[in-house]
Design a protein that fits this description.
single chain
Length: 207
């Protein structure tokens, strides 16, 4: 079991670029040791200059976005190589939810397996959220409620997000993949018994 996820409230940072890939999210230079600080390496190629100093103009280096809990991005977020560390870097930085019109398939699956909410938004919602964040730049605090599939802006305006029940429900319960499978243990056992009776040659009796 992991910590149940029902809602996240906090600063929302915007990175309105399409096709942000996993090498940008966590550059390979930050993956060379087993003890790498993935949170510090998040967007490392953009956050730091060649001497390792923070670039003051990068969004996650500026207050209040240094403590961002939600990230708003454009389409095809997480494309590129299939590195789980891209999800881990976001989580270790403190981001619990990424919203975008679309995600790369492998990143999308990795996100939910690790407890990161990847919410789908319509392009019009993306534009409205970006405008809202700009209007409240001094305190862009948003709230994402997973059970209702809603994000609420600082002025109280609500917008829909899309998350399939098959992915949302385990997050809400706090189930990982093993927990989800074990919830079907009786059905699995019943299938095994029925299949064994029909095709005994596939299920030899235990010694």
């Amino acid at each position: 079991m992991r910590q149940p996820f029902t809602a996240v409230e906090g600063v929302m940072a915007t990175m309105l670029s399409a096709n942000i890939n996993t090498d940008a999210i966590i550059p390979s230079a930050w993956l060379r040791t087993a003890t790498a600080d993935y949170g510090r390496g998040l967007f490392g190629g953009d956050r730091y200059d060649a001497d390792g100093r923070e670039r003051p103009d990068f969004v996650l280096n500026r207050p209040p976005f240094r403590s961002a809990r939600i990230l708003l991005a454009d389409e095809n977020f997480g494309c590129g190589s299939s590195r789980e560390a891209a999800v881990w870097a976001l989580l270790q930085f403190g981001i619990r939810c990424v919203l975008a019109p679309s995600f790369a398939d492998i990143f999308y699956e990795n996100a939910f397996r690790s407890g990161l909410l990847a919410g789908l938004v319509e392009p019009a919602t993306l534009a409205a959220l970006a405008q809202s964040a700009g209007r409240h730049a001094d305190r862009p605090v948003f709230r994402v409620d997973l059970p209702s599939r809603r994000i609420t802006a600082p002025d109280g305006t609500g917008y829909d997000i899309r998350v399939p029940a098959s992915l949302a429900d385990p997050l809400i319960r706090g189930d990982d993949a093993i927990d989800t499978t074990l919830r079907h243990a009786d059905e699995i056992e019943a299938y095994y018994i029925a299949a064994g009776a029909e095709r005994a040659w596939l299920y030899p009796a235990a010694e």
